[in-house]
Amino acid sequence: MTNLLQNMAGMAAMTDQVIATDFLISAKAGVRNTTLALTEAATPEIRTALREQLNDAIEAHEKIYQYLISKGYYHPSDLKEQLKVDLNASEIAMNLSN
Q1: Where does the record place it (predicted)?
Q2: What is the dihedral sign for C-alpha 95, 96, 97, 98?
Q3: Rounded distance between C-alpha atoms, residue 10 and residue 93, angstroms
Q4: Do the beta carbons of residue 73 and residue 85 sit within 8 Å?
Q5: Is there a smaller number of Cβ atoms within 10 Å at the N or the C end of the chain?
Q6: Residue 23 neighbours by CB under 8 Å, 6+ apart
Q7: 49-84 burial code (b ≥16 CB/10 A, e <16)
Q8: Within a domain: residue 5?
């Protein structure tokens, strides 16, 4: 029972990290796709609308990125720390099956 509770506690943090990371990846894709659409836009009105959406997408990406950093889930400037986070997440995931 104790092992189950420990796994569940680890899973809550893991779930937050996984959701936030997935959200960041989706936000990146949104920025990339909006940029591509902007280069293909045929009218000034569409380009204006897409620029506004692009700015919103970039702002959302920045907020998610900062959230990940503030929670200690992402260390873009410190490879050793990021490796620790990634290894810990892997260990938690592996222990969930026990």
Answers
A1: Spore coat
A2: positive
A3: 9
A4: yes
A5: N
A6: 64
A7: ebeebbeebeebbeebbeebeeeebbbeeeeeeeee
A8: no
For residue 77, the 8-state DSSP code is T
What's the rounded Cα separation, in Å, for the pair 32 and 28?
Answer: 6
Is 11 part of a structural domain of the chain?
no
C-alpha triplet 56, 62, 64: angle, nearest 5°: 105
Residue 33 in domain: yes
- Give the separation between CA 50 and CA 36, rounded to whole angstroms: 10
pLDDT at 77 over 70: yes
Q: Which residue segment(s) compose the domain that 59 sits in?
A: 17-93
Instruction: Give me 74's structure tokens.
Output: 């992402």
Q: How confident is the model at residue 5 (pLDDT cuts 50, 70, 90)?
A: very low
Average of pLDDT values for 19-38? Answer: 95
Total tally of structural domains belonging to the chain:
1
Q: Is residue 64 part of a domain?
A: yes
